[in-house]
Amino acid sequence: MLRLLPILLFFVSTAFAQTFTSTIRGSVRDSDTGLPLMGATVSISPTQAGAITDAQGTFRFGNLNVGRYQLTVSYLGYTTVLISELLLESGKENVQQIRLLPSGKQLNEATVTATRPVSVNSIQEITIEQTFRYAATYMDPARVATSFPGVAAANDQANGLVIRGNSPNSMQWRLEGVEIVNPNHLSNAGTFSDRPTSTGGGVNILSTQLLGTSQFLSGAFPAQYGNVNGGILDMHLRNGNDEQTEFTAQASLLGLDFAAEGPFSKKSKASYLVNYRYSFTALLGAMGASFGGEDMRFQDLSFNLNFPNAKGGRFTVFGTGGISSNTFEPDKDTAAWEYEKDGQNILYKNRMFASGVTFEQPLANKLSVRAALVGSALATSRVAYAVNSQSFGRDELLGDQKLINGKISLNTTFTYRYNPRSRFQWGLFVTLNKYETDVWSVNTNLNSLAVQPFVKWSFQVTPGISGEVGLHAMLSKVERTEKLSALPEPRAAVKWQLSETDQLSASYGLHSQMQTAGLYATHIYDTDYYNNRNLSPTRSQQIVLGYQKTFPKNSSLKIEAYWQHLFDVPVGQGMRDNYSVVNLIEEIPYEFLKNNGKARNYGVEASFQKLLTSDYYMLVSGSLYDATYVDLFGQRHKARFNGRHTFSFTGGKEFRSGNESLWGVNAKVLWLGGFRDKPIDVEYSKALKTTLYEARSHYSVKMKDYFRPDLRIYWKKSKAKFNRTLAIDLQNVSGTKNEAYRYFDKRKDDVVTQYQLGLIPVLSYRWEF
């Protein structure tokens, strides 16, 4: 009888097993005009189902069992599109917005993307599904990018990125294709001076619940991109479900998320998507919990409203905003004060918002227009006091700094497709920048204007050779200066499809980027005469050569070699500190700067990627590179972010238990060459009780290599009307002590090494219905 028990349990469990289903649907449109494509063929695997799009370009697969799927979309005269890694879960529809690219080619080339590729080389798409699946991303697309070749995180506590040896300050954030200010909470997180950065922070203010597919570009940018030298993260918002109301609730050690989406009415396709998030640490802090004296809090609200029209266009209204703070209180037990910071009271506040509208409209069968207007602003303040060890009251004011950075950006782009082999794009970007700083009650207000027209022609020479040429112009002026920078920037790229599986490519671009707000607003010697308002943008020439080979089962190999020559780099004119802007992050050098420096970055990158098929995926990438700069004295040195190499492994495996449960085990391993630091003048620092570097020093001190393994385990459970996900992320599961920076500590009276974060566990629970 006991021998029959396992067999009996199997039949009983099978008899009571439930099959949960949901829907995959979407629309297929022309990538240039946005017009619906009627009669496109959509097939879905591993099933044998197929569908033909209707007059509105829509398709639907209903009553599908939950699980992983792949869509194949084809249409006569257009490039076939493969969309992999689709996860269908119960209680939530999977809605795809697919754009097909006209093709005059005879080759059956397939792309793995739902949108038009915006660059020939050095581009990666970041999907919402990847941010939920990759280990220790904390649902932040910038942290997903650390899996890509040539990309390194500046520090564990923030999402600022070192791209091909460039400073994180050379990275540009975009929202819906328009440049915005730093969109992060706690933009001082992990920095050496505890002051805000221009491009990074602890938590992305824009919740992942609203994000669609983002583009990450790392060099030789096409003509439609400007005011950038290092890299671009262009985040795009997804539309809310236009047929049914859906909700998402998530709780984790990062925060509590609540999202709602759905149609405004059953009679229209207009939809809304809104999300509110409140930090979990703020809840614990309100209940009296302490995190080593740190009280970190943030909250944000984001929304996206989509209004399509009957002529194939759409109008959207979107916005995001958040506030955050980081307050450090000394321990009541003064005997526990070990470092200089232990005896300080620091109050840091951060506010950011971005809001705008977009308008897309086909004007004819071959012509379309897209316009976006976005306003964004970032306000930070930091006040630090020395605390009296006897009365425990505030003594000396150690620092008082405020910074406001605002942008109003307008982008208008026209696209005209002459025929399937020839396409023209032209447009205009206008950005008004506002800087306001207040350091020790010295106030500076500056405005600047950047006007960037561009034109681009994409063409096909033969069935296997295509290219594009373009011209971008950067016209910029800083208030209260007579200097107008007018910089023409030619761009070109070519792609040669050797066979259905092999491709060669090459790109060239001349680029420029305005300086950060802190540099323009700097006063030297507390006078207005010595200032840096006359600084020109930093410029760079970039060349990228690429080879790509595709393999069966959704895998590919990509190799790229790049060369970047930076010139007109601001360098300090002082004889001691030897500043070059390519080495700065959050520091404001109170020194007179001139555009007479140079820098050079070159290297080779390789990545092998297998998308999630057959229940596993992997992305193995690495690079060898060199980053140097030329100082005021004409001498070339290793740059601060010259780690020499990057390596990352990202992969995972899924296990299905019946039709209800899906388990996933995901790992990421980062091995990066250590960044560099200046040698500290110990005796001089002891005399003045602050960190001072050796005179005319450069970045000759190399920190140890960085090594960090991460792990993510999730369990997805399906029910008839909802699904649940329980996950745990373990950042730095080995507890490796990676070096961050070195400084002179007044309390220790010696040089101290600050280390990166150790093991950070983050538990999360997600409920979609």
From TrEMBL:
<keyword id="KW-0675">Receptor</keyword>
<dbReference type="InterPro" id="IPR037066">
    <property type="entry name" value="Plug_dom_sf"/>
</dbReference>
<feature type="signal peptide">
    <location>
        <begin position="1"/>
        <end position="17"/>
    </location>
</feature>
<dbReference type="InterPro" id="IPR008969">
    <property type="entry name" value="CarboxyPept-like_regulatory"/>
</dbReference>
<keyword id="KW-0732">Signal</keyword>
<protein>
    <submittedName>
        <fullName>TonB-dependent receptor</fullName>
    </submittedName>
</protein>
<dbReference type="Pfam" id="PF13620">
    <property type="entry name" value="CarboxypepD_reg"/>
</dbReference>
